[in-house]
């Protein structure tokens, strides 16, 4: 009985020791640290790279818009963004087209109605409480990226709301922020309009979806370079599927031939 008790105690002690050692090692391997603590309990802390003061001269980062501009100059006509839906290509965009859309959207945010998005006073310490806000409500897509980067270019702060959020939560966020501008997926518009009476501040809805569809083959119009690339991507994905399916069919045929050979051998014997 004493032996069993001693063995159990040893294992319990070992588990606690391993947990403690793992916790200490985990701290040393941490890659981030708190840069600024949140003022409110509901908000998240601001994190940065660990030992950022020491490593700031070693680790240098380029702004994403600068990277995009470089890719636009070097690979303007190359496909840089591919959007998949249910395993199939739903949309794509070259670096050049993407950059042009970002600039175009940024210009609209700055100039629409002669004013664009106007800065409003909010109960915040940063920037003296003055912010330009735009809501972004939808699924992950290329147009989502265009919107977010266009806002970066115009100094507009995006309030991101994913399509998986419940409509009650979305309405609550829109009420609290008193948003006037909202980018939204087309299939989410109907659900939001059911609560439009609760959102008197909401004035502008911008549809995120690409409304212009690619032309199908058979139309007597020349296809653009982008459309040819799109067809090429379609063919590549379809060819991969056919190769896999063809491989399975060949295996079935070969299996059938082997069965016939075996039967003939049995008959001869």
From TrEMBL:
Q: Name one GO molecular function term.
A: long-chain fatty acid-CoA ligase activity
**Compositional bias segments (type: Basic and acidic residues):** 226-239, 247-269
Gene3D superfamilies tied to this protein: N-terminal domain of ligase-like
Top-rank taxon: Eukaryota
Q: Which SUPFAM superfamilies match?
A: Acetyl-CoA synthetase-like
Example GO CC term: the record gives: endoplasmic reticulum
Question: Which parts of the sequence are annotated with region: Disordered?
Answer: 221-269
Q: What is this protein called?
A: Uncharacterized protein
* Provenance organism: Plasmodium falciparum Tanzania
């Amino acid at each position: 009985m004493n032996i069993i008790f001693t063995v159990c105690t040893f294992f319990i002690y070992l588990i606690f020791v391993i947990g403690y050692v793992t916790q200490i090692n985990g701290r040393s391997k941490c890659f981030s640290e708190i840069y600024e603590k949140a003022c409110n309990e509901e908000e998240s802390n601001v994190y940065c790279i660990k030992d950022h003061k020491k490593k700031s001269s070693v680790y240098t980062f380029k702004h994403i818009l600068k990277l995009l501009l470089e890719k636009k100059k070097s690979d303007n006509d190359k496909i840089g963004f591919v959007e998949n839906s249910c395993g199939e290509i739903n949309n794509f965009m070259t670096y050049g087209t993407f950059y042009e859309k970002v600039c175009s959207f940024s210009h609209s945010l700055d100039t629409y109605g002669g004013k664009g998005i106007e800065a409003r006073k909010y109960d915040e310490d940063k920037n003296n409480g003055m912010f330009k806000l735009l809501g972004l409500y939808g699924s992950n897509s290329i147009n989502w990226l265009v919107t977010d980067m266009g806002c970066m270019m115009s100094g507009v702060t995006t309030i991101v709301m994913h399509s998986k959020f419940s409509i009650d939560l979305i309405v609550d966020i829109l009420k609290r922020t008193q948003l006037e501008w909202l980018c939204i997926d087309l299939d989410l518009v109907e659900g939001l309009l059911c609560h439009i009476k609760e959102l008197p501040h909401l004035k502008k809805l911008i549809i995120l979806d690409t409304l212009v569809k690619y032309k199908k083959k058979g139309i007597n119009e020349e296809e653009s370079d982008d459309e040819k690339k799109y067809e090429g991507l379609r063919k590549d994905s379809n060819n991969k599927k056919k190769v896999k399916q063809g491989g399975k069919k060949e295996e079935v045929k070969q299996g059938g031939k082997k069965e016939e050979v075996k039967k003939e051998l049995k008959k001869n014997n």
